[in-house]
Design a protein that fits this description.
The protein is α/β, with parallel strands linked by helices. It has eleven helices and twelve strands. It has a domain of 242 residues: Aldolase class I (TIM Barrel, Alpha-Beta Barrel). A twelve-stranded mixed beta sheet has the order 7-8-9-6-5-4-3-2-1-10-11-12. The structure holds S-adenosylmethionine (SAM) and iron/sulfur cluster.
């Protein structure tokens, strides 16, 4: 039994007997990813269509409601929260939520992190650190400003580099995330590895996942990381290491640079057996698996009463539905994504 007690704002005290979340396969859920907005100031070609229809603002939970939901999850055993999106740093007053959650570090929460495209990082870096954030992930798929514009459609490479500079200056540890894209950044990977490790950042490469309709054909973008790894091993010496960040990446140490390289391979390797996470959207929908469509609506329980018992019961019910694993397959015949929602809904 979890007996931690706390309060948030004017809400009722968190229920003292909030039971930990153990799914039907015995996995404890200790990691919550929160997509605080589905909106973004970029339109990465593998993630979104250029003309995206976003949720009407009235459908979004308020920051106070998101805080209350996060606190309920902390009471039920969540130790790590990652804010993501869409682009989390474009949500109005997002630092208010960061500050509120930062106060929970050390009393229930071990770590608060953010995944960002870096566009707004320069102006938020110091405050993130001040709120207790120590590590962030920055997504960067190329080091070429012109290619960067092409892949993000709207992004400004220089701003992201300024953001990375500011974050490092503020003391934030950065991990770079790059989606591996055939015929796009394949040849650049050795340079990206040297760039990241040269600046003391880990690098993680991710396979594209078939989520949401985009203009392009995902089978054209898909680059198996097994191939990327073989190519990189012509230049670099890798040693598999048991480094864990609570995520699905498998890491190697790179002898030539001294840095770490992570591989996230949702399609070629099943990383589900040790899954400890659930994903909450900005409308209060809980996805128990990134690669499945099943979800639970927590908004009704949240808004129905200030008694957190109802909310905890809704969360418990959702956890009984956490599936054993994902179902990612690219439907090559119909060229349909396996999961209809875009990655920006749940934040990856
Ligand atoms: N906007 C922030 C960013 O880009 O870091 C946070 C949200 S974004 C959806 C989180 C991560 O998901 C990014 O690293 C992005 O590259 C990755 N991503 C987006 N769509 C993807 C897809 N279809 N397959 C694999 N990764 C994807
Ligand atoms: Fe925006 Fe991140 Fe999706 Fe790119 S990957 S469009 S930055 S949410």
């Amino acid at each position: 039994m979890n007996t931690r007690v706390g309060t948030i704002g004017n809400a009722a005290p968190l229920v003292a007997d909030a039971a930990p979340m153990i799914d039907p396969f015995g996995r404890a859920v200790t990691y919550l990813r929160v997509s605080v907005t589905d909106r973004c100031d970029f339109r990465c070609t593998y993630c979104m269509a250029e003309n995206m229809t976003f949720l009407p603002k009235k459908d979004l939970l308020t920051l106070e409601e998101l805080d209350r939901l996060c606190s309920a999850f902390i009471a039920k055993g969540v130790r790590k929260i990652r804010l993501t999106g869409g682009e989390p740093l474009v949500r109005k007053n997002i630092m208010h939520l960061v500050r509120q959650l930062g106060r929970r570090i050390g009393s229930g929460l071990d770590e608060l992190t953010v995944t960002t495209n870096g566009s707004q990082l320069a102006r938020h870096a110091e405050e993130l650190y001040d709120c207790g954030v120590r590590r962030i992930n920055v997504s960067l798929d190329t080091l070429d400003p012109e290619k960067f514009r092409r892949i993000t459609r709207w992004g400004d490479f220089a701003k992201v580099i300024d953001g990375i500079d500011a974050a490092q200056k503020a003391g934030l540890k950065i991990k770079l995330n790059a989606v591996a894209l055939k015929d796009f950044n394949e040849v650049e990977m050795p340079d990206m590895l040297r760039f990241a490790h040269g600046r003391g950042m880990d690098l993680t490469v991710i396979e594209t996942m078939p989520m949401g309709e985009i203009e392009e054909d995902r089978t054209d973008q898909y680059l198996p990381l097994s191939k990327l790894r073989t190519d990189l091993e012509r230049q670099f010496t890798f040693t598999d290491i048991d480094y864990q960040t609570g995520g699905p990446a498998r890491y190697v140490k790179v002898a030539e640079t001294g840095g770490r390289l992570g591989f996230i391979t949702p399609l070629t390797h099943n990383f589900c057996e040790s899954c400890n996470r659930v994903r909450l959207t900005c409308t209060g929908t809980l996805y128990m698996c990134l690669g499945q469509n099943d979800a639970a609506d927590l908004r009704a329980a949240l808004r129905g009463t200030e008694d957190n018992g109802l909310l905890h019961a809704a969360i418990d019910e959702a956890i009984t539905r956490k599936p054993k694993g994902h179902d990612f397959i690219i439907d090559r015949t119909h060229k349909r994504p396996a999961v209809a929602r875009h990655m920006s809904v749940t934040g990856g």
